[in-house]
Amino acid sequence: MTTGDLSDPIINSPYDPPEAHFELGPNGPTGNLLPGRRPSESFIPIPVTKKGKGAKAGAAEAQTFDFDVTGERREQNTLINNIRREVERWRANNWNGVTPYSRKLLAHWAALPPVRDDPVLFCQREAAETAIFLAEVAGRHGTADYRRRLEPENRLHNDGLPRVGLKMATGTGKTIVMAMLIVKSTAARQPATTSRLAP
Known about the structure:
By secondary structure, the protein is an alpha+beta fold. The chain has helices at 55-65, 78-92, 100-110, 122-137, 147-158, 174-187; strands at 20-25, 28-35, 41-45, 72-76. The chain contains six helices and four strands. The chain has a two-stranded antiparallel ribbon. The protein has a two-stranded antiparallel ribbon with strand order 3-4. The longest helix is centred in the middle third of the chain and has 16 residues, at 122-137.
């Protein structure tokens, strides 16, 4: 795309899906803007090579996996990237396959001014959408069943108490997302005359 000005790093609206991101080079952001959302990836520290016997073999192994000068290995989070793409398609199809209550909440959360004075951030909305997608839609309506990839981890770490973890940065409103999911969980139990939606 273009070369961005790193002195003003805000390139996307907090209320809309990301449209561009800064390219990450070996030393961090390069200033080059790339189209679309940055893929999710992890930066995994590579252990320091031990001295003594086997040091040469260990050094050769570290050289093989060391992809940048910081001594970290960059690894794509394929599960997260795949789910993001699936949720994006599902959103574009008007949240096909959810209950009527869930659809009303999703439309309410997606509303922007002037329809809604205090809109939720896109990251908050997407976190709630992802949880709803995994609970109500995944594995049905022609979508992949990502629960099959999540269930073994739940059995290993939370046996008997299945959970879905949503990772959000500090200050992005995790409490708002918890409130959104509480409202979603209780909405179906309310009488049909309930019309007030929150948060």
